[in-house]
Amino acid sequence: MKLLAIDCSTSYLSLAVDNGERTFSFHEKVEQKHAERALPELARLLQQAEISLEQLDAIAFGQGPGSFTGLRIACGLAQGLAFSAGLPVICIPTLDNIAQQAGAGTVLVCLDARMQQVYSACYRVTDAGAPERLGPISVAAPEALSWPQDVSIAAGDGFERYPALLENAGAAVVRAELLPNALAYFPLARSGRYPLLPAREAELLYVRNKVALTSQEQQLARQK
User: What share of the chain has pLDDT > 90, as a percent?
Assistant: First the structure.
């Protein structure tokens, strides 16, 4: 399965192409320049892979949760490229991507959601196959997060951003460096757990619908 993968859900722009024989990737912190950098880097990767869009089988992208603006950029890119080349899209949650990278065990993924909150989900991960999510992806304050008893791996930048999470990690291996990476979408896309969709049916997973805090809420958040 020849694939293109896109993730703009964090401050990193993460892109990858699999031409069926080799993978080519770009993963770099770009802050707010996802829209500016994405198309030139995608063109470079396709050239390196010696493959055209039309020769791909699908385009996978991180549907969220994550940066609201970044998610819309990734979805728009995936849809536009898929429409132009007549390809389907595969929408994959960003937390599933982090779980895919974490290693085998019971994995709690926490991704910084800003506003003093984290997106979280728990997974059962084996050495074979895609991670099995054990419940819904949710958003909550770090101190309100419910920890499953048997967590062996704590993954995602929420554990770097919020000390309250580390206090509950116990003996779990902490992998706070893990963020959504385009390369990790390839095994997920091939797992069969995520449907191939027409480009027009691409969907985002926001989890939290409120984009910004009021001035009063910002002041309260700073006092915590």
Answer: 86
Asked whether the beta carbons of 105 and 150 are under 8 A apart, the reply is no
Task: With beta carbons less than 8 A apart as the criterion, state whether 188 and 166 touch.
Answer: no
Q: State how far the Cα of 191 lies from the Cα of 173, in Å rounded to an integer.
A: 26
Predicted confidence band of residue 210 (pLDDT cuts 50, 70, 90): low
Q: Identify whether residues 100 and 152 lie together within a single domain.
A: yes
Token couple for 95: 């937390």
For residue 209, being part of any structural domain is answered with: no
152 domain-assigned: yes
Q: Residue 75 sits in which domain range?
A: 3-94+180-201
Continuous H helices in the chain: 34-49, 68-85, 94-102, 158-161, 163-167, 185-190, 215-223
Mean pLDDT, all residues of the chain: 93
Does residue 167 have a pLDDT over 90? no
